[in-house]
Write a structure and sequence with these properties.
The complex is a heterodimer of chains A (about 350) and B (about 260).
Chain A: E1 4-13, E2 16-26, E3 31-35, H1 42-50, E4 57-62, E5 65-66, E6 77-80, H2 92-102, H3 107-120, H4 136-148, E7 154-158, H5 166-183, E8 186-191, H6 194-200, E9 203-208, E10 211-216, H7 218-223, H8 228-233, E11 238-248, E12 251-256, E13 260-264, E14 275-280, E15 286-288, E16 298-309, E17 313-320, E18 325-331, E19 346-351, E20 357-360
Chain B: H1 5-28, H2 45-52, H3 54-88, H4 91-102, H5 105-119, H6 126-150, H7 155-162, H8 167-195, H9 199-204, H10 212-222, H11 226-254
The chains are: A alpha+beta (about 350), B mainly alpha (about 260).
Chain lengths: ~350, ~260
């Protein structure tokens, strides 16, 4: 039995269906992420799990017990808020021990658990500081410690890294993964940042317009998106309008208007004439000045239209014969400016016949 | 910006207009003369007279009692109103609580008088004055408490509940400590407003009971003796202390961080 079960939960605000018949299972000890663009209903769902909002229909069960009649303060579920929501009039130690005091734990027990929590988030020397004396990252860690200290069954995290700068964000991601492994508490993480979701989660549920679109492990989600929305939302992807020419064994023959035929991985249930979109990740596209890509079944020539130098990689936007833009990602692994193309260069693009994915309309 | 001498002169004139009368009242309370006309010499005489003026002391006692009781009750009710207005964003409630702040005192005085006599059939006296003072003080407390709450992050109250605090514990450990500066500032404000109120008290006092402002008024109807100057000086001192205390808390109360 899953630790958290969400069964057919729907929540409307007037005419807006914020959460639309969502069902989910989250296993004990899992780092589970709800990912989606802002307004997709992920925060509404989180608030219902926490108990700040109630579903219009459906059930939320924790360890098999319906949470409907349990108010927020009685649920063994704690939340780390986007704004951290630390109590400004309490010190770090008082903030962290607040849930322990509310749970009527003994003084000795509170001291012991507080000590452990402070060490877990490396804030022992800041115990008597006030939140306004700490940096954003430190406040973030106080909020985490406060959420975890009383050992909830579930910790909900609402875009907790949103307010941090890029460098600190990456450090906190690593801290979060380690902390979650250490305490073994189930995390339900809400974010719109797909990179963060991929880096942190055991499983990700992608939400769009109140519905769950796909639930999968990060690598599966990235490599085998089930819909165009997921493909487009997680990372970058090149898209071409395409039509099935011939579905044969082991591969799919597609026609892209103005470019010709390509070979794509097979898809069940398509017949000749079906229309859809062929999508391929920029890092799967090879780029070369010479014609050596002819060993690849899918290859085209184009003109470099834009170039984004990103340090570790360069992103080339190449205009193909049919006018479509194709992005190719090239690692800058060679020393210096080896094999760097300039805007206006004519180049060859190609990808393996088993790369990419076809979405049937 | 260049501040020309004319601007300085104008500012000086305004301040003089505001403070010279007060300065004169204070100065003449130490004047060794029956008349507020010319300076004769320094004396504590009028303060001694004041101390032996039974009627004056009774009026002062009444005023203190009324101010204390009405400001305490108004603080409790005003705090509750401030929280309710902030939390439920209920326009009518907002209007109803804040109306007495904006309403002309004379109107409030007359309507309270009619209400007490015709509707409640109350004998005018201590109770009616206290009720009247509570009525006009609540709004001031509510405004200050609400301003304090508006400056706080809403999610900290949710966080308290989320971490296991009952609604009462949330109030006790989170809401109340955070709005306390506003509550104190509001209470001091209510006290100050009550102790020097004349118009509303005049309408709701009835006969036989006097407060300090009423008593001073009755004295100057006969003649302004330096005793009035002396009691005015004490009243100014008390009011200034209260305003100083209130503004200390209010400036904190209106800031985001405590």
């Amino acid at each position: 039995m899953a630790q958290l079960e969400i069964r057919n939960v729907t929540r409307c605000f007037g005419d807006l269906i914020a959460v639309d018949n969502v069902s989910l299972n989250v296993e004990a000890g899992e780092f589970f992420t709800l990912l989606g663009p802002s307004g997709c209903g992920k925060t509404t769902l989180l608030r219902m799990i926490a108990g700040f909002d109630l579903p219009d229909s459906g059930q939320i069960l924790l360890d098999g017990k319906d949470l409907a009649n349990i108010p927020a303060e009685k649920r063994p579920i704690h939340t780390v808020f986007q704004s951290y929501a630390l109590f400004p009039h309490m010190t770090v130690a008082e903030n962290i021990s607040f849930p322990l005091r509310m749970a009527r734990r003994s003084k000795a027990e509170i001291n012991k658990m507080l000590h452990v929590a402070l060490e877990q988030v490396h804030l022992t020397d800041k115990a008597s500081a006030y939140p306004h004396e700490l940096s954003g990252g430190q406040n973030q860690r106080v909020a985490l410690a406060r959420g975890l200290v009383n050992r909830p069954l579930l910790l909900l995290l609402d875009e907790p890294l949103g307010a941090l700068d890029a460098k600190l964000r990456q450090e906190m991601q690593i801290d979060l993964i380690n902390l979650q492994r250490e305490v073994g508490i189930t995390f339900v993480f809400v974010t719109h940042a797909q990179v963060e979701a991929l880096a942190l989660s055991h499983r990700i549920a992608v939400m769009d317009q109140g519905k769950i679109v796909q639930v999968d492990e990060p690598a599966k989600l990235y490599s085998f998106p089930k819909t165009r929305f997921v493909a487009d939302f997680i990372g970058h992807i090149n898209q071409f309008e395409a039509q099935v020419v011939k579905p044969s064994h082991g591969h799919l023959c597609l026609a892209i208007s103005g470019l010709g035929e390509i070979i794509a991985p097979p898809l069940e249930g398509v017949v000749a004439g079906d229309k859809g979109v062929f999508a391929i990740r920029p890092e799967q596209v090879r780029i070369s000045a010479h014609s050596e890509l002819t060993e690849l079944k899918n290859h085209f020539s184009g003109v470099v239209h834009d170039l984004l130098y990103r340090g570790e990689v360069s992103l080339y936007k190449v205009k193909l014969a049919n006018g479509a833009m194709n992005e190719a990602l090239l690692p800058n692994s060679a020393p210096g400016r080896a094999e760097l193309f300039e805007v206006g260069d004519t180049v060859n693009l190609g990808w393996r016949h088993d790369a990419g994915i076809f979405f049937h309309d | 910006m260049h501040r020309g001498p004319r601007l300085w002169a104008a500012a000086l004139a305004v301040y003089a207009f505001l403070y010279v009368p007060i300065a004169i009242i204070i100065a003449y309370s130490f004047n060794d003369s029956r008349l507020n006309a010319e300076w004769v010499g320094f004396t504590w005489h009028w303060y001694k007279v004041l101390l032996h003026d039974h009627d004056m002391l009774v009026a002062a006692g009444n005023s203190l009692f009324i101010a204390l009781v009405s400001s305490l009750v108004a603080t409790v009710l005003g705090t509750m109103a401030g929280i309710a207005i902030q939390r439920y964003n209920f326009t009518l409630l907002n209007f109803m609580v804040l109306m007495p702040v904006a309403m002309p005192e004379i109107l409030l005085g007359v309507s309270l008088l009619l209400f007490f006599i015709q509707v409640l059939n109350l004998t005018l006296g201590m109770l009616s004055i206290v009720l009247a003072h509570i009525t006009f003080s609540i709004g001031f407390v509510a405004v200050i408490v609400r301003a304090r709450l508006a400056g706080l992050d809403e999610s900290i109250f949710e966080a308290a509940r989320d971490l296991g605090a009952s609604p009462w514990e949330t109030f006790r450990y989170v809401t109340f400590p955070l709005i306390l500066p506003g509550v104190i500032a509001g209470g001091l404000m209510a006290f100050t407003l009550s102790i020097d109120d004349f118009v509303i008290t005049f309408f709701t006092a009835g006969v036989g009971l006097s407060t300090l402002p009423l008593h001073i008024y009755s004295m100057i109807k006969i003649a302004v003796t330096p005793e009035v100057n002396a009691i005015s000086t004490l009243l100014i001192l008390l009011t200034l202390t209260m305003i100083a205390l209130a503004s200390k808390f209010t400036s904190n109360a209106l800031l985001k961080k405590p």
